[in-house]
Amino acid sequence: MERMQIAPIKPTIPFEVLEQIDIRVGTIELVEDVEASDKLVKLTVDFGDHKRSILVGMKQERENPKEVEGTKALFVVNLMPKTMMGEVSEGMLFDIGYADGLTPVLAVPEKPVPNGSRLG
User: Fold this and answer.
1) HSE-up of 101 (CA within 13 Å, CB side)?
2) Can you tell me whether residue 8 is helix, strand or coil?
3) CA gap 61, 22 in Å, rounded
4) DSSP state of 105
5) What is the residue-wise DSSP string for 27-52?
6) CATH class of 15-106
7) Which tens digit of pLDDT belongs to each residue from 2-40?
8) What one-character-per-residue DSSP string does 99-119 give?
9) How far apart, in whole angstroms, are the C-alpha atoms of residue 30 and residue 43?
10) Does the global pTM surpass 0.85?
């Protein structure tokens, strides 16, 4: 396991701020290359009642980004859409480790839950 310097805990926030973030389970159905970028791939994610495109900087983190196809993971779904490299991202994938300089891993549910299940 990689060793790291443990970062200090961020300042406290009111619980109401956390409740504003909509985190849901989705299945990564498709991983596509964003040719104009050396970092980004486009995920097509199924949230049960709809699908979204979410851009993720995982090209340099994984030898084969397509290995996450079929995986359920956690996503923030109420961020404003953001255009990067001519593609629109409609959310954010939760991964663990990037901010600490580690090779990121996906935040995944421990047991099967339906797409669209909410955190909390």
Assistant:
1) 6
2) coil
3) 26
4) E
5) EEEEEEE-TT-SS-EEEEEE-SS-EE
6) mainly beta
7) 678 899 999 999 999 999 999 999 999 999 999 999 999
8) GGTSPPEE---SS---TTPBP
9) 6
10) yes
